[in-house]
Amino acid sequence: MQIMTNKHILLLLAFLPALFSCQDNKGPRRLSIPIVESTLSDTTSRNYSLLRSYSPGQVEGSIFLFGTPEEVIQMTEEFLTADRHNNIDGNHNADELPDFSGETIAALMDIANSPYDDYFVLSNENFIKELTVRNFLFAMDTLALQSPYDTLHPVRKAKAKMVVLASSYASMYGAAEIDTLCRVANPAVPVVSMLDVMSVKALETGDNFLVWTTRDKLDRNVFADYFKHLPGRLARKGTLLTEFHWHQGCPAPDSLRDDGTVRARLLDLLDDYLATQPRRDRKVGSILLDDPLVNADQLQEALESLKRTDEDNLLIYRNLLSPRCRVVSPGEAVTEYCYQMMRENNTFTHKIAYPALKCYVTTPAAYLPESLCDVDGSLAYSYNYGRESGQARPSFSFVELRDRYFSETWMEFMEEKAPKTFSLYVR
Fold it and tell me: Which residues pair with 246 in a beta bridge?
């Protein structure tokens, strides 16, 4: 198994003021993707107007999530069901009322462009950046299509009052471009990057954490660049890091140690860490979970069991873990962050109602010839992953979710992994 060694990132705080003053004095910098350049160069464009029309402290609107279907479906379930606070005083005390009561959760499942992993096969990271920006701009829009074949009669949608990048790939590729758009057009737009929030949460229990990720991300080493630039991104948001250490691994589902259970895979991850960690006195403070197919509760249970064990053959693992070591899951980290942000900014609707749900999907654009699509109507592989950024017409559309655009496989996934989301969708 290919395993990455620890990365040591040192942020020199004394240089930060000079760094940002230099950036401010350089004037407009050349951006990597055309959609950002075109939006910022034309202040009369619809995209620019969508950003400018957001008002600070906006109460009306949706909490908008977008990313791959697996990630968005499970993140939506967290927003619909999270109950960690008393809704009156905000204290950590469940009150049997969802934390986001009265809110509308809008979920965009990027089916047309998923999965994202294979864009790296053709070194097409720029297209991931573009689709992340387009998904963001749709979140800020007030219109959606009711059919990809009817572009003349769109339907109304709620404008986002908060946008969540619910995909780790969106956090890595596109978040910086969205940040540039907002800093120029409207810095008040609240954009929450899933991985940024999870990283801060992971560092709360120590400067050393493990990343449980997927095979594709491990093989392509996609976290290296993300963590390299994390200190600078967080510094712009007011969080300064002095130093942190991380280790990335992907425990195989068919672990030979046991029967492939989460516990067995956790031991495999710790073995990989031990094999490359020269300082075993550095305790693991947390495990950042970046695999939507792994149950965070089961992983936390396995972790707690290891922290309590007195079995001789497992003491090496127990001694490796900080007493506060915990699993940092996307759903819990993001919902907690968004809840606190909305309370601080007083942007809850305060409506007496359970959270509402609106679902959208991406579909191949209707104008595309059949030669660019497979027999099931999805984008052909070579075209999908070879698309260049900056095309005049987007190759996908944003459509209100209907059964015809949602396969049986996704329906079953939603029913199993997100029963509350499923019940609201089929109602």
Answer: 7, 209
Backbone angles phi, psi at 396, to 5 degrees: -140, 155
8 Å CB contact between 303 and 209? no
Among residues 120, 105, 22, the alpha carbon closest in space to that of 64 is found at: 105
The string of pLDDT tens digits covering residues 217-275 is 888 888 888 888 888 877 777 777 767 888 889 887 776 566 668 999 999 999 989 88
Strand 143-144 with 160-165, pairing = unpaired
The tokens 């620019």 sit on which residue?
48
Task: Pick the more confident residue, 197 or 251.
Answer: 197
Burial bucket for residue 243 (CB in 10 Å: 0-12, 13-18, 19+):
exposed
What amino acid is encoded at 411 in this protein?
Answer: M
For residues 322 and 284, is the Cβ–Cβ distance under 8 A? yes
| Cα–Cα distance measured from residue 159 to residue 139, given in angstroms and rounded to the nearest whole number | 7
State the Rg of the chain over Cα: 22
d(C-alpha 204, C-alpha 199), whole Å: 9
Kindly report the backbone phi and psi dihedral angles of residue 80, in degrees, each rounded to the nearest multiple of 5, phi listed first: -75, -25
d(CA 302, CA 326) in angstroms, rounded, equals 10
Indicate the helix (H) or strand (E) that contains 128: helix 125-139
Beta bridge partners of 211: 248, 288
Amino acid present at 155: V
Compute the mean pLDDT over every residue in the chain, rounded to the nearest whole number.
88
Q: To 5 degrees, how large is the angle CA 276–CA 278–CA 281?
A: 120
> Environment class of residue 353 by beta-carbon count within 10 Å: exposed (0-12), middle (13-18) or buried (19+)?
exposed
Largest distance between two CA atoms of the chain: 69
pLDDT digits (tens, 9 = 90+) for 344-370: 999 999 998 999 999 999 999 999 999
Exposed/middle/buried for 380, CB within 10 Å: 0-12, 13-18, 19+? middle
Q: Determine how β-strand 208-212 pairs with β-strand 284-289.
A: parallel
Q: What is the pLDDT of residue 57?
A: 87
